[in-house]
Design goal:
- By secondary structure, the protein is mostly helical.
Length: 236
Amino acid sequence: MAISPLSDLAYTQMLDMLEGLPPDRRLPSEDELAGRLGVSRPVLRQALARLRTEGRVYARRGAGNFVGKPPALQGATFGPLHSIPDLRSFLEFRCLIEAESAAGAAQCRDAALLEEIARRLRMFETALARGEPAIEEDIAFHGAIAAASGNRFFDMTMAALAEQTRVSIKLIRELSPQPMFRRTADVRNEHRAVEAAIRGGDADAAREAMLTHLRGGLARLFGSNAPAAAGMGDAS
């Protein structure tokens, strides 16, 4: 499954709408935005989730969506993924980054940041239950962990890697020999294990749970040929 063309179109239209708006400006309601763009609310939410991942939009509980600022690294780029070996290298890099990001998040004492991780997990599972791609929700879950890590460079790096992550998820779904229902169940359970370890404040368990998730993703693509030390992000 991949992000729908309608969602891509809504995303592009939202970018045009955001152009020139000052940061922290409140956006119209989701109903109004969906009406303006001529799309359904689920399609709009996919576009908004992508914009939130990129820092262009942020949400305030009970207040709606607001214009954000792209992350400091938004203007930088790691370049596109060119090949399967390039994809493997990318996933191995994420393994190193995200394992320590999860360990840092487990030491977080900010209840709001921890709740955001749990909320992103619920949104991911809800999207899956609806039969939606859940790609943006998947990315947002990992982004919330980076935000709670206490290290702004983890947060900035994950934001800068959003497009590569998005492409890698699509490729893994298209190329994986594993049945979709099995792959989806594994990813859901791995996400739950990561969130539980972070919520429990166990840095070692959080690090290991994230490594299990990322390595499992690489195995979903390469099978038994996946190296034990390799990593993979969000192989839904």
